[in-house]
Amino acid sequence: MAQFVPRHVFPHYGAIPRSYFLGHHRAGLSKMKNMLSSIDYVVECRDYRAPVTSINPMLEEALGKTRRIVVYTKRDLGSIPQSSAQRLTEKKIRSFDPDSAVFFTSARSRADSTQIIKHLRNDAETLDKIVGCRAMVVGMPNVGKSTLINHLRNYGVGKAKALKTGGQPGITRKIGSPVKVIERESGSHVYVLDTPGVFMPYVPNAENMLKLALCGCVKDAVISPVTLVDYLLYHINLHDAQAYHRWSEPTNEVVPLLETFARKTGLLGKGGVPNIDSAALHFIQKWRAGDIGRFLLDDLDAEHQRLNDPSQNTPLSMTQALKAERMSRKEKSDVNNQPE
Length: 340
Ligand SMILES: Nc1nc2c(ncn2[C@@H]2O[C@H](COP(=O)(O)OP(=O)(O)OP(=O)(O)O)[C@@H](O)[C@H]2O)c(=O)[nH]1
What we know:
Layout: H1 23-35, E1 41-47, H2 57-63, E2 68-73, H3 84-94, E3 101-104, H4 110-122, E4 133-139, H5 145-157, E5 179-182, E6 190-194, H6 206-214, H7 225-239, H8 254-265, H9 276-288, H10 300-307, H11 318-337
Parallel strand pairs: 1-2, 1-4, 2-3, 4-6
Antiparallel strand pairs: 5-6
The chain binds guanosine-5'-triphosphate.
The site of guanosine-5'-triphosphate has 23 residues, from helix 5.
Organism: Penicillium capsulatum
Binding site for GTP: 142-147, 197
Family: Belongs to the TRAFAC class YlqF/YawG GTPase family. MTG1 subfamily.
């Protein structure tokens, strides 16, 4: 049998939507900015599977110089615990933020969250604050902010879950009340505030939009699930084309893969016809649960080069991003209104 050759380039970035900036994102961002003067720390969450792509330049711009802790969430979905690959990956990720305290967390690991508690507890600059220390947890939608706060509370003060979490973005819509995560004898306790996930007004690079959608930062209905699985398949094949052997031989063809997947998992419509969209959503869910390989969607070496090359590294300001989003909407409506 001929040897399987994965695709080295993903062929169709064409008609992918590039924005998902909702009313509560805009309102949340503006409220966060107004609250900054009463905040000691920003805890910025990024997704471990897309450590560079899940940085939101809008948040970086808005939150400016406030002291920052960077937390890469969902570590369990991006690497194998204690492996040398994990150590190397995390060394590279750390190098992106040499001036911030950087943590990697998995909701399954108590030790990961405890490291953050230790850091906050020992922070000399907030030890003697009479009113206590306030940290605001920010990041893209669905990145795991509320989950992180629940864990910090549980491991810090032994209390049960305080915040609602869920598999789709937008569970948190407003800035929450302070949640105590550390008690200090001095009375300078540490409180953490949850915030609504904020997306960008416009994502200049269509591939980044696919990565963010796969990580769950945009609602599943925004991009066709079959396109998402096609893009995921491209990545899976580059890492381990055996990862889906339960359902299919290695393949670069998304529809036949989804047909066999639907047959083998019983996702059939009328007359036993495979339900392709439903199969695509289930396939993505399996990957999000860590069942079809654990790897990063970002190429860290390429990202490192890009970040060090000023000609390739011009993040859009909020105004530019909003303008780009308006232009893209106008282009779309012009195309739709053209006579046949
Ligand atoms: N496997 C895994 N899943 C996680 C982890 N952290 C969070 N999740 C899951 O990710 C989903 C989103 O988590 P949330 O805590 O609701 O995310 P959020 O950032 O508060 O979301 P918004 O309400 O959109 O702002 C939930 O299904 C969590 O169970 C993690 O470390 N590992």
